[in-house]
Amino acid sequence: MKLINIQEVEEFRKAVHQCEGNVYLKSPEGDVFNLKSAMSEYIALGQLLSEQGDNLELFADRREDEALLLNFIAELNKENKALGQEN
Q1: What angle do CA 30, 8, 42 make, to 5 degrees?
Q2: CATH code for the domain of 75
Q3: Angle subtended at Cα 67 by Cα 84 and Cα 43, rounded to the nearest 5 degrees
Q4: How much of the chain exceeds pLDDT 90, in percent?
Q5: Which of 75, 9, 87, 80 is nearest to 48 (CA)?
Q6: Distance separating alpha carbons of residues 86 and 78, to the nearest angstrom
Q7: Which of 8, 28, 54, 72 gives 20 to 30 Å between its CA and that of 86?
């Protein structure tokens, strides 16, 4: 799933850490970061906050975790639209 304009980084981190399996962020260059690893998480979050933030893709090992992350992103999109910050 593509990430678009994630500004609530701490909420995103909480959602990732609720997942039981591994969660990965993939850069346009093909770099893959495991968000369950502290070192990888910090590198990936740096990219998420940089100009590449809209070009990153999110993957999860487990379907249940993908569903959790999709729900998080859907709620975030709903909140942004309510605030007039459409993606």
Answers
A1: 45
A2: 3.30.1340
A3: 75
A4: 38
A5: 9
A6: 9
A7: 28
